[in-house]
Design a protein that fits this description.
34% of the residues lie in helices and 13% in strands. It is α+β, with helices and mostly antiparallel strands. The two termini are 24 Å apart.
Amino acid sequence: PGCVVGVIHEGELVHVRAYGMADVVANSPLTPRSAFNVQSIAKQFTAACIALLVQEDVIALEDDIRRYVPEFPDYGIPIRVRHLVHHTSGIRDYIHLVMLAGTDFRDHLSHKDALRIMMRQKSLNFDPGTRHVYGNSGYVLLSEIVERVSGTSFGDFAEAHIFRPLGMTDSYML
């Protein structure tokens, strides 16, 4: 429990201070250099990576995701890249599936584990584009698409195309 606060005035960092603990069990305090797992805020950076690839005409929002992930199940109706971006794909959230199985999703569930769970599903929750249901599965698939079309890891792509150009030297994605 805690936070790190930074105040920028006229383009200059004028105040930075950490409050609270980084790890209660280890009794380690937060510092201004502490790393934070921002969870779902990362979706915005994932969408930005996709937007960059769309701008470069590497992918299109109307593309069927099976163009990039051909082993993904065919449900008889195309799931488009835009469906993943806008949470309208109908793909079940892998975190909910893991929890239904009685497993704690925080137990080091890898990207590949999430993909395997999604690919075992026999049907969608709804036809793509007919409903909006926030979830995580679409963004796992988007990061997979970034990796496959760029030929580099998702984290390296975000580093080279977003973080480094913006001077975000302490940010990274796995």
